[in-house]
Design brief:
D-Maltodextrin-Binding Protein, domain 2, about 40% helix
């Protein structure tokens, strides 16, 4: 039987031993010189039957007290065998993990990115996981902070991208491959007035198909940022008092959060002539631009939850880098957008972006089952789409989840929308880009 990636088989020695005992039990028992031996011929006639003096009318053979003792021994023997078999069954079902109670549900704990907090707290998710024999408890932190956390008390780590997951595997010398059950592209959230100004100045576009999907033209945007252009310099911005100051995207701190680090990966890819930065020379060539797009923001939040909630609450008016899943989850659940106006908020897909592969690293064997059911269970895949994620095994599930809902337009097919994926540098190079962005 297989559980959590391990196969437990019945021992041949154990089976042979059982067979021998079974064979011996079937052999006739004979009496020889006062000793019972299997299969031996009797050497003398059997003794005459003896009646119990205490029960003269009783049956021949052992006395009643002795018969009761013998019978009880047989009962206890059967019970002991059943208990042994039950113990073997539990060991086969739950190798290395102890069920919490009679329902056989195993509790596992994990450290996750904040963008998955509501998913794991959803009662439907909790119920489906319990059907699969799992109860999951979680703590949250920034994806890049997970490697610095005390992971010994957790069964799994679940950062928002592959790079911090690989760092965790390296630190803890984990050989098994991590599982990426779902993903989400990085997008830009903006108010409609802002998107219209970007479009008028050739920095954004909108498809002619329905729904009309917005895209951010990243090469043109990066050029405008490098030139130090301001919102008030753009055509059409004069009628919008909120559009003031330097043109930039608000992101998370790349040293603590996956979305901020992936933004640097995309910017470095663009600045390096649409080539992944792969060495120190490449880092040196793009260090000024990654520093510029970071320093202009001032203080940065440590996880993706911060800028997203600030944007929804109206703190700051500039465009915000977010995971598609964060906004799509609100749409799929019918939650109103800022100000209650669905038409006021726009999701722009950078035409060159990075997909955030949410990657589960099993720190202990029990977590491998969680990774598998998140990837393979259809009920959980539908719930992942409800929270804005694109299941690896069913990327079209998100389109079904938001279809007919009020809210911004989402690209059901990213390739058809003209969205290309930038290559992400190795962990070592990405760390150097992060240091350059922070002026180190």
């Amino acid at each position: 039987m297989t559980f959590a990636g391990r196969r437990v088989e019945q021992s041949d020695t154990w089976s042979d031993g059982c067979a021998r005992r079974s064979s011996a039990a079937r052999s006739p028992m004979r009496f020889r010189e006062g000793v019972f031996t299997p299969g031996s011929p009797p050497l003398r006639p059997p003794l005459p039957p003896r009646r119990d003096a205490r029960h003269p009318g009783g049956p021949p053979g052992h006395g009643a007290g002795e018969g009761e003792t013998f019978g009880m021994r047989r009962v206890f023997g059967v019970l002991a065998a059943l208990a042994l078999l039950a113990g073997v069954g539990v060991a086969l079902l739950w190798p290395g993990d102890e069920p919490d109670g009679s329902d056989g549900v195993v509790t596992i704990s994990g450290l996750i990115g904040s963008e998955k907090r509501e998913f794991f707290a959803d009662p439907d998710v909790v119920a489906e996981l319990q059907k699969q024999g799992l109860k999951v408890t979680t703590d949250t932190t920034g994806s890049w902070l997970m490697g610095e956390s005390d992971l010994a008390k957790y069964d799994f780590a679940f950062p928002a991208s592959l790079s911090p997951a690989e760092e965790i595997r390296k630190q803890r010398q984990i050989k098994s491959e991590p599982v990426r059950p779902f993903y989400s592209p990085l997008v830009v959230l903006a108010h409609r007035s802002m998107a219209d100004v970007l479009k008028e100045n050739g920095l954004a576009g909108q498809s002619s198909s329905e729904p009309a999907v917005w895209t951010l033209k990243m090469d043109a945007y990066l050029k405008a940022v490098q030139e130090g252009r301001k919102w008030q310099d753009l055509k059409g911005a004069g009628s919008h008092n909120e559009l003031r100051g330097l043109l930039f995207l608000t992101t998370t701190d790349p040293s603590t959060s996956s979305s901020g680090a992936l933004y640097l990966a995309a910017i470095s890819y663009l600045a390096n002539g649409h080539q992944v930065v792969s060495d120190d020379a490449g880092v040196g060539a793009v260090k000024d631009v990654v520093r510029q797009v970071t320093s202009v923001q001032g203080d940065q939040k440590t996880s993706s939850d911060g800028p997203f909630k600030d944007f929804l609450s109206g703190v700051g008016n500039g465009p915000v880098l977010a995971y598609e899943s964060q906004m799509a989850a609100l749409t799929a659940k019918g939650v109103s957008t800022p100000g209650g106006s669905a038409g006021d908020l726009v999701v722009l897909y950078p035409d060159t972006t990075v997909f955030s592969d949410h990657t589960l690293v099993a720190l202990k064997p029990g977590a491998e089952k969680l990774a598998a059911v998140l990837r393979d269970d259809q009920v959980l895949r539908d719930l992942e789409a409800k929270y804005g994620f694109r299941p690896q095994a069913d990327p079209g599930a998100l389109g079904k989840a938001v279809k007919g809902r009020q809210g911004p337009a989402y690209a059901s097919d990213l390739a058809a929308a003209g969205v290309q994926q930038a290559q992400v540098p190795t962990v070592a190079v990405l760390n150097k880009l992060i240091n350059a962005a922070k002026g180190k």
